[in-house]
């Protein structure tokens, strides 16, 4: 029912059931009006995240209306407007986080300077003389302790060692710096900065206070902003990778026909070359065969002519040659 009402409100207007008199003072507001907060429509408005904190951005100057947000979510134009609204929110959140990161860097530099131990102050002339006297006494006593130990006089050596310990304590007090106690207290409660929200923390603070900070409004708000930016960056990187793969696939699809055509041309060229080689070899064989026939022709003509001449001479020679007696046709004389 609510979805249908929102759809009717978008198509016919929220004042569709008002009278003419009521319409005069009525200004209908739609989710795509400039007065409506696009950040609230698409995700969250950063102004709502840090109320009553050090990072409070103040009240948003645009309209936050759950009914308008519902109308936007049910609108047929929802998907086409989401990228535009998200891009505007990304731009706002990036500026917010960049400003915070600069504050965090400045705070870390200040903490590093405060924790750096100052150079030791120089001792006065009087304290330097006292220190020299103490060191000489300690040296002499240690030599005596070593000698007593070699002689086996343990009790005397232990008594002298107690004097040496007292002199060392006196020496430590003499050279102690005035700000050593303050530095020890600072190191005991070492400060740090939260990388997420920029709040100052005590590094070795109690677990309850640390948990209270993590669940606090400022930390949660900046965590939400950073997660949103990371999500958008991952989606953009994924889109670029998919676009790169699509371009690569299109390039492969265009290249494969060219490769097949080139391979076909190369194959045809190789086939024509093979055919030409076969034809040349056949031509060479025919040429050698004809040359061999030409070399044999003179001998064939001479042998053939010899045989033909002999045959003609035989046909013209008298039969007597063949061994038959030739009969004379002259008349016989009778006596």
UniProtKB/TrEMBL annotation:
It comes from the Eukaryota. Residues 233-335 are annotated as: Disordered. Signal peptide: none annotated. InterPro entries: Luc7-rel. Keywords: Coiled coil. Residues 233-293, 300-314 have a biased composition (Basic and acidic residues). Residues 315-328 have a biased composition (Basic residues). Pfam families: LUC7 (PF03194). The keyword Coiled coil applies. Residues 124-177 form a coiled coil. Belongs to the Luc7 family. This is Luc7-like protein 3.
